[in-house]
Amino acid sequence: MRGAVLYAPGDVRVEERPDPVIVEPTDAIIRLSATCVCGSDLWPYRGVEKLDGAAPMGHEYVGVVEEVGGQVTTIRPGQFVVGSFWASDNTCEICRAGYQSGCVHRVLMGSIGTQSELARIPLADGTLVATPGMPDADLVPSLLAASDVLGTGWFGAVAAAAGPGKTVVVVGDGAVGLCGILAAGQLGAERVIAMSRHAPRQELARRFGATDIVTERGDEGVARIKELTGGLGAHSVIEAVGTQESMTQAIRSTRPGGHVGFVGVSHDVALQGDELFFSLVHLHGGPAPVRQYLPELIGLICDRKIDPGQVFDLTLPLDQAAEGYRAMDERRAIKALLLP
Ligand SMILES: [Zn+2]
């Protein structure tokens, strides 16, 4: 099969890789209908995250089940399925509490690599959710978004306690931040303030339900949020970048008693204990338990209530994955969809 492999920073190649086979009786093999490049793939692509030899890439996926192992009972060949970037059993105590990304048996899909024609999905019964029948082709990008960016933005909004009567600030205008805006609206937020200085992303933010746009950053950005919230700060802030600047901005934009949902993959972020102490904010975040939200998100997508697939503003054949990485790295594209 064809699959993307990162050899060195800036060097992604699509090449022949061995076809996946059933390894554990709980595995499934899927044929991907679509896959994509994640903002988090840019960390190793930019050399910020160290590479330990050539690495298969990709952790977002939707597709049709080809084969299942002998112990798989609910997932069947021929089903169209969506799964998260963590494979999880969905039965352990952590999963049952809704934290499948912390499953005691979890497997990181990025270690398998789903920017490919086929992929092995561990713990298929727990990991995969089948759609009701074969989805219309125009729904596939939105279902793919559910696999990571929508589920992650959703968790960010839930962790930030977005809801009726709340003012929600979203720090970060990448695909996750944009999906966080959409989620905040769906959860009933009264006002959603997007922090973005990029015109096409501001426009998508508005389409996803942002009521205000703030272009300032850092201390000026915080001051602007205070100005818009009667000097108090927001009730809920979604942090969707993962840098020191964005995390600081998120905490300082939150009112005492408010919630920060941090879902940007954290890189070299250090929090000042005394500032945290006196901020009186709730902090919750981490790798999103996307699996928890998949049934609900698939329902909203299949009923055409939400259209998160709009985050894909570039579609390429899988063989041109390298251009997808370049376009996202240079911020020419929000998110690149790859067709195997
Ligand atoms: Zn589990």
TrEMBL record:
PROSITE patterns: ADH_ZINC
Cofactor or coenzyme needed: Zn(2+)
Residue span, Enoyl reductase (ER) domain: 10-338
Classification via InterPro entries: ADH-like_C, ADH-like_N, ADH_Zn_CS, ER, GroES-like_sf, NAD(P)-bd_dom_sf
A Pfam family recorded for this sequence: ADH_zinc_N
Source organism of the structure: Nonomuraea ferruginea
Similarity comment: family membership: Belongs to the zinc-containing alcohol dehydrogenase family.
Family matches, as SUPFAM superfamilies: GroES-like, NAD(P)-binding Rossmann-fold domains
Name of this chain's protein: Zinc-dependent alcohol dehydrogenase family protein
Keywords: Metal-binding, Oxidoreductase, Zinc
